[in-house]
Amino acid sequence: MELARETGFSHWGIFPVSALRFLPEVRAACEVNKCGRYDKSWSCPPACGTLEENEAKARTFSWGILLQTTGEMEDDFDVETMLEAERLQKERFDAFCRRVPEGERHLPLGAGTCTLCPECTYPDAPCRFPGRMHSSMEACGLVVTEVCQAADTPYYYGLRTLTYTCCVLFV
After folding, report:
1. What's the Cα-to-Cα distance from 168 to each of 66, 124, 135, 161, rounded to whole Å?
2. pTM for the full model?
């Protein structure tokens, strides 16, 4: 939790991996391809593995930390704050994961697709950063609000707020 504070997250909470539900309907939402990343990234379905494979991998961990960045918008259309909160979340998430002690097994699950590279090498070449690449919580079939509940951490922080949420699982 000290690392979450040091890397600048707004909120965080601890949860047991046993509380996670991996739902096919969440994973199926990826196939609708609203974000445009389905079958275009190593971090997204189908390249990131099946729902069953992701659940089996996650179940080898015992606990996780939920990490959030909340932005306060001037109005409901404050796109600048939305984009800045997203940028900060991704920056903080990468910094957090890079500071996990070497050799400590962990599984990062981000907020949205991995954006470490301007253009993903999928499917023509291997991932450039397999140790830093991460799938989203949703690509793994997780309902973000349920993970927030398991971590006893709010999902919603009031009018004109926008919160990005990710997590990291640990042994």
Report:
1. 7, 28, 11, 23
2. 0.95
